[in-house]
Specification:
Layout lengths: L1 E6 L3 H21 L5 E4 L4 E5 L5 H22 L11 H8 L4 H10 E4 L2 E4 L13 H11 L2 H9 L10 H7 L35 H7 L8 E2 L5 E2 L2 E4 L2 E9 L5 H10 L4 H6 L2 E11 L5 E3 L3 E2 L2
Antiparallel strand pairs: 1-3, 2-3, 4-5, 6-7, 8-9, 9-10, 10-11, 10-12
Helix pairs in contact: 1-2, 1-8, 2-5, 5-8, 6-8
Length: 300
């Protein structure tokens, strides 16, 4: 099944594709079905195989798993706004009752070095300008509808979604933007805008893709090193880079995780496993500590 909306050549698209595979894998396990497999065509468009679903059933399955995930963020993490609000005591308390998927979700948000939590290097919503990753996840999951999932998976992204006044009021969003900040377009600098972003609310996004990207964090745990990074990330001086490959051989979630953990530094080995392209992005810091991701660049 071709997913025309999922372009793996940029970070936002790749995370949405990885999250989709994770959601379908969970569905397959629960229904005792064969595991789904993900791969990309030469232009970077995602395709799913091994999932015996028509588009409507696929969307139903994905949406059901998204709604199930809301409980964890809205109940267990209700007091958490950003990953660094967690600490060792909070991790231990949550882990005592968390299931397998929730534990992976925690590991994808942050890890502890000593008593303090260090956010995933894929987190660009860390409190600057009132953007908080965990709070943004709650907002995204509460706003997304099945039609948004369909648009994100099966059509080129138009990024036309904006929160209605009624939804903003009902959910108490205030001026918050429903974004995980994986898209470089989310960081629109003052100098490049016609309007002042502090006095206008014209933010638009692909809300279905935002929701699909949420479970991707759980596949990329933060590693408890002296200077933690997420899987597939590395630090070069003050820069943090995240890299991934695209592959043409249909791969299960476990295989994809192993590909990401292997990194991109040995092209011959990855090509032998079906990879045909490697890309990377940098997490960059702007004024007042505001983070965003650079556009992707090809490595090989």
């Amino acid at each position: 099944m071709r997913l025309d909306g999922i372009d793996g050549t940029h970070l936002f698209g790749f995370m949405a594709g990885l999250g989709t595979l994770a959601l379908l894998d969970e569905h397959a396990r629960q229904q005792q079905l064969p595991p789904p497999r993900l791969h990309f065509d030469p232009m970077g468009t995602a395709e799913i195989t091994g999932a015996p679903l028509d588009p409507t059933a696929l969307i139903d399955a994905v949406f059901e798993r998204i709604q199930a995930a809301r409980v964890f963020y809205e109940r267990d993490l209700v007091a958490i706004k950003k990953p660094t609000d967690l600490n060792r005591a909070a991790f231990l308390e949550l882990a005592a009752t968390a299931d397998r998927g929730q534990l992976a979700g925690l590991a994808g948000l942050a890890c502890c070095v000593g008593d303090e939590a260090v956010e995933s290097s894929l987190c660009a919503a860390n409190g600057a300008s009132h953007q908080n990753l965990v709070q943004s996840i709650r907002d995204v999951l509460s706003l997304v509808e099945k039609s948004n999932i369909h648009a994100a998976l099966f059509a080129p992204w138009r990024k036309q979604y904006e929160v209605s006044d009624d939804s903003r009021k009902q959910l108490g969003l205030g001026n918050r933007k429903p974004t995980l900040r994986l898209d470089p377009a989310d960081e629109r600098l003052y100098a490049l805008r016609l309007s002042n972003p502090t006095t206008t609310d014209d933010f638009k996004t692909e809300i279905g893709a935002q929701a699909l990207a949420v479970p991707a964090f759980a596949q990329l745990p933060a590693l408890p090193r002296a200077r933690p990074v997420s899987v597939a990330s590395r630090r070069l001086g003050n820069r943090v880079l995240f890299a991934w490959a695209l592959w043409s051989t249909p791969a299960t979630l476990a295989t994809v995780r192993s590909l990401l953990a292997a990194g991109i530094d040995q092209p011959d080995q990855l090509r032998a496993r079906g990879a045909f392209m490697a890309l990377r992005v940098a997490r960059v810091s702007g004024s007042k500590g505001k983070l965003s991701f650079s556009p992707s660049e090809g490595v090989w």
